[in-house]
Design goal:
Layout (H helix, E strand, L loop, with lengths): L1 H31 L3 H30 L5 H36 L4 H31 L2
Length: 143
């Protein structure tokens, strides 16, 4: 049957892209580029693209898992991963961008802004890690 393969393919695309961006591309940028501001800008662009990939994959995957016997479990995983994307992309990232923009206008980020940025980055990273783990569970449970 082709439907289980499509579900698995979309799941692997979603979770693989999360892992590739978050744990390969972004760290490589910061390790390779001497200009950390440039590395951050490129990483931000990659994470923005990843957010849209996540929203697309999640939106396509939800109706595909709706009829499965383990539907509640899988729908819960997909919704939790989508919630992480929505909170991070539409909540935390704009806040972080505002802090960076106000720092750019002032020339230097104030220590209060720096600590707020670090806190928000830590929360976003934690959500991303949780999404990555939930994604691993989703791949294993997908049939």
């Amino acid at each position: 049957m082709w439907l289980p393969r499509i579900r698995l393919l979309i799941t692997v695309l979603w979770v693989g892209s999360l892992w590739a961006i978050g744990y390969l591309a972004a760290p490589t940028l910061f390790a390779t580029l001497a200009d950390k501001i440039l590395a951050g800008a490129i990483a931000g662009s990659l994470f923005r693209t990843e957010a849209w990939v996540s929203l697309g994959c999640g939106a396509v995957l939800l109706p595909l898992v709706w009829r499965l016997p383990q539907r509640k479990w899988l729908v819960g995983l997909v919704l939790a991963m989508l919630a992480g994307t929505l909170v991070t992309y539409f909540g935390i990232q704009p806040w972080m961008a505002e802090l960076k923009q106000s720092a750019g206008a002032a020339g230097v980020m104030a220590s209060e802004s720096t600590s707020q940025f670090a806190l928000l980055h830590g929360v976003a990273s934690t959500i991303y890690l949780i999404q990555s783990v939930l994604g691993a569970v989703l791949v294993v449970r997908m049939r």
